[in-house]
Amino acid sequence: MTTSRHITDIIIHCAATKNGDSLFRPHPNGGANIPPVAIIDDWHRQRGFKRSEEARKRQNPQLTSIGYHYVIYTNGAVATGRAEWEIGAHVAGQNSRSIGICLIGTDKFTKEQWAKLAELVKLLQKQYPGAKVLGHRDYSPDLNGNGIIEPQEWTKICPGFTVADWLKAGMQPLAGHIFEAPAQ
Ligand SMILES: [Zn+2]
After folding, report:
1. Separation between Cα atoms, residue 110 and residue 173, nearest integer Å
2. Is the distance from CB of 161 to CB of 174 less than 8 angstroms?
3. What string of DSSP letters covers 130-161?
4. pLDDT confidence of 153, banded at 50, 70, 90?
5. How many whole angstroms from 53 Cα to the centroid of ligand 1?
6. 155: left (phi over 0), alpha (psi -120 to 50) or beta
7. What's the whole-number mean pLDDT along residues 103-124?
8. How far apart are the C-alpha atoms of 67 and 38, rounded to whole Å?
9. Could you tell me the distance, in angstroms and rounded to a whole number, from the CA of residue 160 to the centre of ligand 1?
């Protein structure tokens, strides 16, 4: 039974949802709202992703499909999806040796999200020494072969910001990508 994997890449994604939308949704039968992790689980089920029975028995049995390992909510809470030892489903060709983190939003994230992302990535870097931290779009093909994945080469815009800039800035919230709640 697999309990650990060799992790070389920590990959950041966004949910491609409206910036600032918490993605909590009312339950049709009332009661507690449906959390974002369950909404994403639904999307991934519709795309045909499937977790193994074994994995579900060990973590988050209610999530049948979600491809990410972590989801960071607009309020800064972190929800777990797949277990870290479990192969994710988030970047074709990279899943076996990576961890996938998804931020709710598209390209603007709350200060709480930025803080939690920094905390989580630092923790994972400690756990998986030497692992690179990249954004989904950094895996786009380098079409002109110059060694740099340029904006015109991005197959997706996910996660909506340049992870290398964020790392260079010491994992501080990235200017132009901070969601400020409108005044009430
Ligand atoms: Zn992505």
Report:
1. 9
2. yes
3. T-EEEEGGGGS--TT-SSS--GGG-S--TTSS
4. confident
5. 25
6. alpha
7. 98
8. 12
9. 9
Beta-bridged to residue 156, according to DSSP, are none
Q: How many angstroms separate the CA atoms of 108 and 152, rounded?
A: 21
Read off the tokens for 133: 């931290």
Kindly tell me if the per-residue pLDDT of 39 is higher than 50: yes
- How many angstroms does the Cα of residue 184 sit away from the middle of ligand 1? 32
Given a contact cutoff of 8 angstroms between Cβ atoms, the answer to whether 140 and 155 are in contact is yes
pLDDT of residue 2: 52
Ligand 1: centre distance to CA 47 (Å):
14
Answering whether pTM is above 0.90, one says yes
Q: How far is the CA of 16 from the centre of ligand 1 (A)?
A: 8
33 and 25 Cβ atoms separated by less than 8 Å: yes
Which DSSP symbol is given to 80? E
Q: How many CB atoms lie within 10 A of CB 182?
A: 6
Q: Please, which pLDDT band fits residue 3 given cuts at 50, 70 and 90?
A: low
Token couple for 79: 């929800």
Q: What is the DSSP string of 3-45?
A: ------EEEEEE----TT----B--TTSSSPBPHHHHHHHHHH
